[in-house]
Amino acid sequence: PYMKISAIDYSLNINGDYKATVTGGGEGIATLIPVLNGVHQAGLSTTIQFTRAEDKIMSGTVSVNGTDLPTTTFPSQGFTGAYYQLNNDNFDPTHVIWTQA
């Protein structure tokens, strides 16, 4: 799978420990091998298994240009210039990925 490492925090360097954000694209197992001064440290490698998260049913309504629509029928269609507002209490909005078709 695709793997991206970002937000590496070097400030917590206690005994060579570092903190980073790992993001995966697709399911599978990826091997993470640290590099020290340009030399791969294969003996310090670890594997990370990426699995798809289960879909979570959204409850509540979606406001489109001020009109509330039930989430069971959203998104059935979109239109240019629409403003969407998610009115929900059972999920974290930062977990929503918006794409434009």
From TrEMBL:
One of its GO terms (cellular component) is cell outer membrane. InterPro entries: Intimin-Invasin_domain, Invasin/intimin_cell_adhesion. This is Ig protein. It comes from human gut metagenome.
